[in-house]
DNA sequence: GTGGTCTAGACCACC
DNA sequence: GTGGTCTAGACCACA
């Protein structure tokens, strides 16, 4: 992890975890790194890691066992996909529509392109 | 300019120039920064800037007056839009379709979303 | 606000805001206190207020206008009720069932009690 | 004990004692702390402790041996449960029904929830 | 002025 | 050991 782009660090950490889950590298019920541990490795404040974990917990992607640590939730992968769907539809799609308008690309042109791709 | 993402620096410089033109901050026939000048400010090799200008010249976005420097082309804005259209349709759009497939989002869902936005 | 009970301060602040909305004292689209302002009055760190507002924003109860402040969301009251429903069903109800079991109270006894109340 | 909530202190002391009995930490016929002793530790007036003990004695939860102190009654645990049953049915349950009405939660929804929990 | 992010460091409860 | 909360203070972007 390089934290090179302009997204907040805690967002990048959350996306890192989600990527691991999406790739099935981190599976349900397995323990993930502790906030102190991961914070030390990434050289960020544990609070920043905590914020990432908090976000993931709110999305039912990880859960906490008191005094033990965070674990990957049972339906974690599905939750990640669900969250990404939401982000795509609410954030990326509007941007795409704006770009299309700016570049004078009509929906019909997209559909044409899509059909060509499928056929 | 930060050169923080993973794109080549000369690409980022070209995009920086195109952005200026798109926003009408740099207009047709006006002179743009010299290769040496811009290279010094951005702390990159003048050759890198030259590569960016070369790319823009090939797309009819800027042109060169020998011994004088580079100038914004007459139809620069249109050329930029044309270039971006091409990039959008050939590079971004395929990526979007892949993401949609990955997240299980159907074209119908997009169309529905688009109509809601318009109404 | 006294922060007398054992709940986290940021939770109490969020509940304070939700109470205002439930009572229709704070209505949709009206601006709410800034994080600095409310933090100063309650003598807590602005970050703590921010955490409360963050929670409320995630629940679509308030929203942010950049550089201007937080505002009560359009469907804020409905969102508050929705959130409280969830809390009741997932947190309070299980506790009630545990208490019932501990005190040897059967569901039938509750139903009997409920009917008496209704009639 | 913190005396942080809004209940009267003597009530909280009585509940503290009942909790001990419920958890079988204080068993029948064992002597409990003296009024002066407990009052000193909790930094409250002995009269306040006395009021709590008086309440418990009226409910047959503790009894007094003159000149010796207070002892846990034979059927203390059953008496505590009996008292809490009464409190639950007469005080908490009405509040629960009010909350349910406020949040638009039907008894059917509760039953459904209960079945899911049992199964 | 507004929020948003991050750090350093503290204290707490739970296990 | 684990997370959870809070503070003080900093710097940033946006308007």
CATH class label of the largest domain in chain A: Mainly Alpha
Portion in helices of chain A: 55-70%
SSE pattern of chain A, N- to C-terminal: HHHEEHH
**Class of secondary structure makeup of chain A:** mainly alpha
Largest sheet of chain A: 2 strands, antiparallel
CATH architecture of the largest domain in chain A: Orthogonal Bundle
For the residues shown, what is the average pLDDT of chain A? 90
Share in β-strands of chain A: 5-15%
The CATH topology of the largest domain in chain A, please? Answer: Arc Repressor Mutant, subunit A
Low-confidence stretches of chain A: none
How many domains comprise the coordinates of chain A? 2
Task: Tell the overall outline of chain A.
Answer: elongated
Summed up, the helix count of chain A is: 5
In quaternary terms, these chains amount to homotetramer
Radius of gyration of chain A: 18 Å
Number of strands of chain A: 2
In spatial order, strands of the major sheet of chain A run: 1-2
The N- to C-terminal Cα distance of chain A equals 39 Å
Which chain pair has the greatest contact? C-D, 26 and 27 residues
In the CATH hierarchy, what is the superfamily of the largest domain in chain A? Winged helix-like DNA-binding domain superfamily/Winged helix DNA-binding domain
Give an overview of the whole structure.
4 copies of one chain form a homotetramer. The first copy, chain A, has 119 residues and is mainly α. Chain A folds into 2 domains: 9-77, Orthogonal Bundle (Arc Repressor Mutant, subunit A); 86-118, no CATH class. Helix content of chain A is 63%, strand content 7%. Chain A has helices at 9-22, 35-42, 46-58, 76-103, 107-118; strands spanning 62-65, 69-72. In chain A, helix 1 crosses helix 3 (46-58) and helix 2 (35-42) packs across helix 3 (46-58). The longest helix of chain A has 28 residues, at 76-103. Chain A is elongated. Chain A starts with 8 loop residues before the first helix and ends with a helix. The mean pLDDT of chain A is 90. The interface between C and D is medium-sized, with 26 and 27 residues. The structure holds a DNA duplex (15 and 15 nucleotides).
